[in-house]
Design brief:
Layout: E1 7-9, E2 26-27, E3 31-35, E4 39-45, E5 49-59, E6 62-69, E7 87-94, E8 104-108, E9 111-117
Parallel strand pairs: 2-7
Antiparallel strand pairs: 1-7, 3-4, 4-9, 5-6, 6-7, 8-9
Length: 133
């Protein structure tokens, strides 16, 4: 997909402009996206999010990722605080070359992996070259 981008950050909703009903802080998960001949693979860092707490859905050409962090119970006297906890939210525009009915995902050890398969019509194919008669 030379100059066409099959996936890009949405210009629309972002954590700073979306009205959320929870009082938690929201973070943009760090994301890597790889492209193969068959699909795009998105890796999102969502530490502290269990698979059942990931809300991933495709709607109106957008892939919307939300991850909810359950705050752990901590005991003892608080001495220092550098680690910040909060939920995750990110929206991506998905190009029409992606087959949205075949999107799959799994979450393991704080990494969400999303498979975005390409439509058959956009996959590269080898063209056979025959000898002239």
């Amino acid at each position: 997909m030379s100059n066409d981008r099959a996936m890009a950050k949405s210009d629309g909703a972002s954590p700073q402009t979306v009205e959320m009903t929870r009082d938690n802080q929201y973070f943009l998960p760090q994301v890597d996206i790889f492209e193969t001949d068959e699909e795009l693979v998105l890796y999102a860092d969502v530490p502290g999010v269990a698979p059942q707490d990931v809300d991933l859905h495709f709607e109106n050409g957008e892939l919307i990722l939300q991850g909810r962090v359950t705050k752990p119970e901590r005991t003892g006297k608080f001495l220092a605080g550098e680690y910040r906890e909060g939920d995750y939210y990110r929206v991506f525009q998905v190009h029409e070359s992606i087959n949205s009915t075949r999107i799959t995902a799994e979450c393991n050890n704080g990494v969400l992996t999303v498979h975005l398969p390409k439509e058959e019509r956009v996959k590269p194919r080898k063209v056979e070259v025959k000898a002239a008669k």
